[in-house]
Amino acid sequence: MHTQSLNFNLVLVCVLFSADQSVKTKSSLLDVFVKVHTDRAVQVVDDRFVGVTLDTSLIADGWGKFNFTSQKLINLARELSPTFVRVGGTAADRLVFDPLKNTVNKANSYPLDDDGSVQFLRKFYMSAKDWDLLNTFTTEVGWDLIFDLNVLLRKHGRWNPSNAVQLLTYSITRGYNVAGFELGNEPDSFHHVFNVTVTPQQLADDVFTLQNILRKKFPYFKSSLVVGPDTTQVKKKRSYEYLQQFLQSEPGQKVDAATWHHYYVNGRIATLQDFIDPSILESLKSEIILATDLTRRVAMGTPVWLGETSSAYGGGAKGLSDVYVAGFMWLDKLGLSALFGLKRVLRQSFYKGLYSLLDYHTLDPNPDYWLTLLYKRLVGSAVFNATSTDQSIAFRVYAHCTKTHNVWGYPAGSVTLYVLNLHSESVNMSLPQFDDQEVDLFLLTPDGDQSLKSRFVLLNDKRLELTADSKLPVLEPQKLHSSVIFPAFSFGFVVVPQAQVKSCQTLSNISVEKERRRDDFVLSK
């Protein structure tokens, strides 16, 4: 992808002029030629590269409208498997497991802040019933659970693991396979969230305690991951130093993945222009490089995850994080993360918050759900560099081998590109190396008069929505030749079924044992 610097003032003028216009408005046509460098894969990811999250505050709030028996919910969740689901967040460091309590918390049964969220400074209890519901659901839909344990249960300056031991003991009696554990959420921010400080070395010592409990006291969980430290954005000096000092410790070097969190903007003040500003999208690259370079230097071989991430922090941006325009940030984040070596990207969130993949009240898919679904179905393991003749960062293209286990029957050797057009004009994208070949287009555009703020998305001009019996619709591509038009402010996927790329015939969708690292969890019980 080209990353030459832009005259950002000019770009901003174009954005301000075009942002409220429909992407279907006719405009001039910009010709762009794209090359996929298929001689070698620069990275390899796996089927669980894209994951999701659920916020721990859901447990305190009686799970909201998250109806575990809803067939709609089960269908939507199952379609994203295999995947990791991380249950964590600020509320994780106020959760206490009560194995004797066997009823689900009542909605709003705990003190609330002015915005209706649970007051995080109060402890709350997760019942055995809550834990049963969560584990039964994740097993049914094929998700691997990562659970964030409360690190603020402390005694004499150390983590007190007694409540975690209760949780593990109960889980064994129920036969629950927990894929992994975290210890604390954003510990570098404890000082201003909880008025408590847990130093990187203290957290490392606490992680060592957890690792010993899982490996020695509870060998049933010896295959479970321990990931951390779940710091905030590494571009902040304090957060970077926290991550560095944690990973330099002996326990820190033994975590199964180094995790950090990323959001582009503040959800309370974010604007539409923020969501379509290519310089804001591009800013993620430097943070990924910071995190991966640091981990490579001080904890060689440790995979790096985005353990919690979305468009805007503070619960998301109203009317932006839950509509069509949010797809630019999400799709580009997946592209940059795969290209620069991250092994997992966990989307905040599957349910709850303005950045949720599902509507809070109806459980209907928001636009980013459909984007995630297409990514999971189309994008395979091997990652390639892709370049274009466009001398800007407003046209953004990423390329992988196509996932061969897909409903369309694409063969090994196929290539999938995903493309974002942030120009205020349409782009005619040509693929000279695949000249005269048929390609399949999955073009996503907004539906209705709200344009970029539409709550509905079109796939090749057909609205995506569940069927009357809550099943997912058939996702049909448009068949074209090697030239594809992307309207202004649109994105989508292009598959070249007969690309016959040799590296895709050998690398894509295989076990790639040499590429596997300690973050590969296998349910072996």
Task: Report what the structure shows.
The chain is of the alpha/beta class. It has 13 helices and 24 strands. The two termini are 43 Å apart. The chain has two domains: 8-43 and 383-510, Sandwich (Immunoglobulin-like); 47-380, Glycosidases (TIM Barrel, Alpha-Beta Barrel), CATH 3.20.20. The chain is 27% helix and 26% strand.
> What's the CATH topology name of the largest domain?
TIM Barrel
Shape: globular
CATH class of the largest domain: Alpha Beta
Number of helices: 13
Low-confidence stretches: 2-26, 114-118, 508-525
Task: Give a brief outline of the structure.
The chain has 525 residues and is α/β, with parallel strands linked by helices. It has helices spanning 8-18, 57-60, 71-78, 128-141, 162-174, 190-193, 200-217, 237-248, 272-275, 278-298, 326-339, 367-378, 502-507, and strands at 29-37, 43-44, 50-55, 83-88, 95-98, 124-127, 143-149, 154-155, 158-159, 180-183, 225-231, 257-266, 304-313, 344-351, 379-388, 395-402, 415-421, 426-430, 439-446, 457-459, 462-463, 478-480, 483-486, 490-496. The chain has 13 helices and 24 strands.
Helices and strands in order:
Layout: H1 8-18, E1 29-37, E2 43-44, E3 50-55, H2 57-60, H3 71-78, E4 83-88, E5 95-98, E6 124-127, H4 128-141, E7 143-149, E8 154-155, E9 158-159, H5 162-174, E10 180-183, H6 190-193, H7 200-217, E11 225-231, H8 237-248, E12 257-266, H9 272-275, H10 278-298, E13 304-313, H11 326-339, E14 344-351, H12 367-378, E15 379-388, E16 395-402, E17 415-421, E18 426-430, E19 439-446, E20 457-459, E21 462-463, E22 478-480, E23 483-486, E24 490-496, H13 502-507
Parallel strand pairs: 1-18, 3-4, 3-14, 4-7, 5-6, 7-10, 10-11, 11-12, 12-13, 13-14
Antiparallel strand pairs: 1-15, 2-15, 8-9, 15-16, 16-17, 17-24, 18-23, 19-20, 19-22, 19-24, 20-21
